[in-house]
Automatic annotation (TrEMBL):
<feature type="transmembrane region" description="Helical">
    <location>
        <begin position="93"/>
        <end position="121"/>
    </location>
</feature>
<feature type="transmembrane region" description="Helical">
    <location>
        <begin position="260"/>
        <end position="283"/>
    </location>
</feature>
<feature type="transmembrane region" description="Helical">
    <location>
        <begin position="21"/>
        <end position="38"/>
    </location>
</feature>
<feature type="transmembrane region" description="Helical">
    <location>
        <begin position="392"/>
        <end position="409"/>
    </location>
</feature>
<dbReference type="InterPro" id="IPR037272">
    <property type="entry name" value="SNS_sf"/>
</dbReference>
<feature type="transmembrane region" description="Helical">
    <location>
        <begin position="310"/>
        <end position="339"/>
    </location>
</feature>
<feature type="transmembrane region" description="Helical">
    <location>
        <begin position="141"/>
        <end position="169"/>
    </location>
</feature>
<keyword id="KW-1133">Transmembrane helix</keyword>
<protein>
    <recommendedName>
        <fullName>Sodium-dependent transporter</fullName>
    </recommendedName>
</protein>
<dbReference type="InterPro" id="IPR000175">
    <property type="entry name" value="Na/ntran_symport"/>
</dbReference>
<feature type="transmembrane region" description="Helical">
    <location>
        <begin position="351"/>
        <end position="372"/>
    </location>
</feature>
<dbReference type="InterPro" id="IPR047218">
    <property type="entry name" value="YocR/YhdH-like"/>
</dbReference>
<keyword id="KW-0813">Transport</keyword>
<keyword id="KW-0812">Transmembrane</keyword>
<feature type="transmembrane region" description="Helical">
    <location>
        <begin position="430"/>
        <end position="453"/>
    </location>
</feature>
<feature type="transmembrane region" description="Helical">
    <location>
        <begin position="181"/>
        <end position="199"/>
    </location>
</feature>
<feature type="transmembrane region" description="Helical">
    <location>
        <begin position="50"/>
        <end position="72"/>
    </location>
</feature>
Length: 455
């Protein structure tokens, strides 16, 4: 079995360098999870204790799951669905993990693209300096944007078009080049914002809230959120990174690459907290403001500081870049799955997918306006889709991948692929296998059952 995957198809796209792969993987991970969702969930869950649990989950659960997807993708040189077929050729039913990943990415895009559209609109207004114009109340502006159908659909269309343009150019010329441009700019903008935030009067209260663990506010739901955040933050569970790593050369160290991606993801989450909570506390605002934290609370804060328009525009552009680099991976897993069948060109398939995603995302886009009265289990279409994907499908996907790697995949194949191109030895593999056999599935099951009991 080990020799079956040595040959790479000449037709297959490939990252031009290890750096390109790491930036693309980090781009897939660093998006709404790190910059939008983590801050407001941290604010609702008591601050530093939640962030500490998130980091621990990311290292103990997220990292081995990331490595597992890398092993399957680089080892088979195939997109998600085909990868599972190749590793377990006599058990074709396991290919449904890949199919579930494709479906999960599609469903995720139907609400992710809506938020991406909000960010597109806000970025344009931020650059124009109208978000914190005295004539605009931030809360009313946010309500107007999400509550006006044509504005929401315009943003959705722009975000979808940006993805279609990049993905249609391919792995090297599209995704890799876009990430090499956006990711360094993202870090530069983050550093500028963090320096400004921590130098505000009263900022240290925000730093203390974010970094000092207080476990009195930690609940079972908060622990579930932390686990879900580690999955969402690393883009694992839907086999996106199986597809990304299938474009990777055999001489690249998977442990080093995964470690770099985890480090960058935790770093961005850390910087996001340092950029947001000092500002919130400096202006005596509410850290537990929910999803509107970035769209309503922060504009209020930026409006009260010198050169606030400039810093807000920087933050919104940063947010847009991060959201786009993350959505690229969601599009790519779907495109790659159909390209493998060879029936359509990449450009035609990407355009068709963009149209389908746009149409499918319309109900979620109109959840705050025309379809506000439509609900499922007490949730709007947007919130219900978010819950299904983030709280059910992602943990289930990770659980199935963990079981597949630990019990179905050939142990020698996994070991060889994990250590290939790396200086890691038997001890590293043994630790990884122990985590995948026992720790990862137990933690996922406990948290998932706890969540189901609560609902």
């Amino acid at each position: 079995m080990l020799e079956e995957f040595e040959e790479m198809s000449e037709k297959k796209g490939q990252w031009s360098s290890k750096l390109g792969f790491i930036l693309a993987s980090a781009g897939a991970a660093i998006g709404l999870g790190a910059i939008w969702k983590l801050p407001y969930v941290t604010g609702q869950s008591g601050g530093g204790a939640f962030f500490l649990i998130f980091v621990l989950f990311t290292l103990l659960i997220g990292l081995p799951m990331l490595l597992s997807e890398y092993v399957l993708g680089r080892g088979t040189q195939s997109e998600a669905v085909t990868a599972y077929k190749k590793v377990a050729p006599t058990k074709p039913g396991w290919a449904w993990i890949g199919r579930m990943g494709v479906l999960g990415c599609f469903l995720l895009l139907t609400f992710y693209s809506v938020v991406g559209g909000w960010i597109f609109i806000y970025s344009g207004l931020g650059v124009a300096g109208t978000v914190i114009d005295p004539a605009n109340n931030p809360s009313e502006l946010f309500g107007k944007i999400i509550g006006t159908p044509w504005i929401t659909l315009l943003g959705l269309g722009l975000f979808t078009l940006a993805n279609v343009l990049v993905i249609s150019l391919g792995v090297q010329n599209g995704i890799e080049k876009a990430n090499k441009f956006m990711m360094p700019l993202l870090f530069i903008m983050f550093i500028v914002l963090v320096v400004r935030a921590v130098t505000l009067d009263g900022a240290m209260e925000g730093v203390k809230f974010f970094l000092w663990p207080d476990f009195s506010n930690i609940t079972g739901k908060a622990i579930l959120e932390a686990l879900g955040q580690s999955f969402f933050g690393l883009a694992v569970g839907f086999s996106c990174l199986v597809t990304y790593s299938s474009y990777l050369k055999k001489d690249v160290s998977l442990p080093n690459s995964a470690g770099s991606v985890v480090l960058l993801t935790v770093l961005v989450s850390f910087l996001a907290g340092l950029a947001i909570f000092p500002v919130v506390f400096a202006f005596d605002l509410e850290p537990a403001s929910g999803p509107g934290l970035l769209f309503m609370v922060l504009p209020t804060a930026f409006s009260q500081m010198p050169f606030g328009e400039v810093f807000l525009a920087l933050f919104l552009l940063l947010f847009l870049f991060a959201t786009l680099t993350s959505s690229f991976s969601l599009y790519e897993i779907i495109v790659a799955a159909f390209i493998e069948k060879g029936r359509m060109s990449r450009s035609a398939l990407t355009l068709l997918l963009g149209i389908v995603v746009f149409i499918a995302a319309i109900p979620a886009a109109l959840s705050s306006s025309t379809l506000a009265d439509v609900s499922f289990f007490g949730k709007t279409i947007f919130d219900a889709t978010d819950f299904l994907v983030s709280n059910l499908m992602l943990p289930l996907g990770n659980l199935l991948i963990a079981f597949f790697i630990a019990h179905i995949a050939d142990k020698e194949f996994v070991k060889k692929e994990l250590l290939m191109g790396s200086q890691m030895g038997q001890g590293y593999y043994s630790t990884y296998r122990l985590l995948m056999l026992i720790v990862v599935p137990i933690v996922i099951l406990v948290v998932l059952l706890n969540m189901l009991l609560q609902y």
